[in-house]
């Protein structure tokens, strides 16, 4: 299984970004999928999870109301739409299924003016 996250970048506070997660070697529709984030030296923090059907979604309190997780099972992709970004959202973002697979390289999100 290989996970590839993309879409990160440098944005100003209050702006939006959408992250993408592509997988190979696995059919994502068989799994609930999650996004995580980590600042260097810290443990990965869970951000959001979407059920395999796309019906149920849960979010960490820190992102609730600002982030939206979604998926396209036909494309084997998972997304994270991030709005109203703040400096506290600066992190490397990763996708995985309950941490069961090797981590991808992640995608860096930096929120700064």
| Computed structural class | mainly beta
| Major beta sheet, strand line-up | 2-10-9-4-5-6
Percent in helix = under 10%
User: Which percent band covers the strand fraction?
Assistant: over 45%
Low-confidence stretches: none
Name a few traits of the molecule:
mainly beta; 0% helix; four-stranded antiparallel beta sheet; six-stranded mixed beta sheet; 48% strand; 113 residues
Give an overview of the whole structure.
The structure is a single chain. The chain has 113 residues and is mainly beta. The chain is built from no helices and ten strands. Strands 2-10-9-4-5-6 form a six-stranded mixed sheet, with no helix packed on it. A four-stranded antiparallel sheet has the order 1-3-8-7, with no helix packed on it. A hairpin with a 6-residue loop joins β4 and β5.
Helix-strand blueprint:
Elements: E1 2-6, E2 9-11, E3 17-24, E4 33-38, E5 45-50, E6 57-59, E7 67-72, E8 77-82, E9 91-96, E10 107-111
Parallel strand pairs: 2-10
Antiparallel strand pairs: 1-3, 3-8, 4-5, 4-9, 5-6, 7-8, 9-10
Please summarize what this structure is:
The chain is 0% helix and 48% strand. It contains no helices and 10 strands. The model has no long low-confidence stretch (mean pLDDT 96).
